[in-house]
Every structure is written in C-alpha cells, then in structure tokens.
Amino acid sequence: MSNVIEQLERRQLRGDLPQFKAGDTVRVHFQVIEGQRRRIQVFEGIVIKRQGAGARETFTVRKQSFGVGVERTFPIHSPKVERIEVMQIGDVSRAKLYYLREKVGKKARVRAKQRGPVVSSPGVHGTVAEELEPESAPGAEEAAEDGAEAS
C-alpha cells in the first residue's frame, strides 16, 4: 500500500524549481482565486524555513509590509505556485531563521553571499580571479600581435 502512495506522490513532484534554502530572498508567484477571477500575486521575502519532504514539503517566507512582519507558508510542489525566483542567496549558517521575527528594520536583513570571482589584493600573483578568466577566442592572439606590430 505504501508503495502505491509513494508512486502517486512521485508523479506530483515538480522538476522546474530552483534550488534555494533558508536565508535566500525569493519571489513567489502564487495563483490567487477571488470569486470567478484568477490572478497571480507576487510575495517577495526571506525564506526562514524549509520543512517536510516529498510532495508535502513546504517553505515559509517572511517580509516586512508597512512596518508589520508578514509570514506565509507555501507548499513547494503545489500547482498554485506558478514559479519561484531566487533574487539573492543569503549567507547564513542555520536551517531555521526564527530569530528574524524579533528583528526590525536594518537588523532584520540577511547578508548576501558573494557570487563573483574572488579577487585578491593587487600585486599578488596566482590569484583565483586569474584562474577563472575565460580563455580568449581563437584568433584573438593574432589580432593582438598585429596591433602591436602596427604601433
């Protein structure tokens, strides 16, 4: 019997979702039904927790709206969630960020993780940034040599 339930749940899982964790700032496009009308409502905030597994997995997003903290819990695999956009990756070391509930204003922010290459101080050779530079296009070296000869 549990095997049948697992198969049904596996069919309901979505594969088009980005990877995100607690501390990330996300924008959730959620379908709202008001009477006979359907519309997409956007809820942007910081993910304070992710819990559950499989089709029952949920995540909670917190934002400040007119000075009041608002939290909303979304099921990840729900068909009402149109899409989830990760706006910023947070640099946190906890799975649950309940401490943000007591913080207000600038103290309620989460530090963003740096996405770019690591740059060392000038004059230091063998930095990570030099190793991450893309290889030049074919023919670029010849053009550089021709420019040097023309000078």
Largest sheet: 5 strands, antiparallel
Instruction: List unreliable stretches of 5+ residues.
Output: 126-133
Class derived from helix and strand content: alpha+beta
- Walk across the major sheet and give the strand order: 4-3-2-1-5
Average pLDDT for all residues = 80
Based on CA atoms alone, the radius of gyration comes out at 23 Å
Number of strands: 5
* Strand portion: 25-35%
Taken in chain order, the helices and strands follow as: HEEEEEHH
Number of helical stretches of at least 4 residues: 3
Shape: globular
The helix content is: 10-25%
- How far apart the termini lie comes to 80 Å
Q: Secondary-structure map with pairings?
A:
Blueprint: H1 2-12, E1 25-34, E2 37-51, E3 58-65, E4 68-75, E5 81-88, H2 128-132, H3 140-150
Antiparallel strand pairs: 1-2, 1-5, 2-3, 3-4
Gist of the model:
This protein is 18% helix and 32% strand. The chain contains 3 helices and 5 strands; from the N terminus they run αβββββαα.
What can you see in these coordinates?
18% of the residues lie in helices and 32% in strands. With 151 residues, the protein is an alpha+beta fold. Strands 4-3-2-1-5 form a five-stranded antiparallel β-sheet, with no helix packed on it. Strand 1 and strand 2 form a beta hairpin. The radius of gyration is 23 Å and the shape is globular.
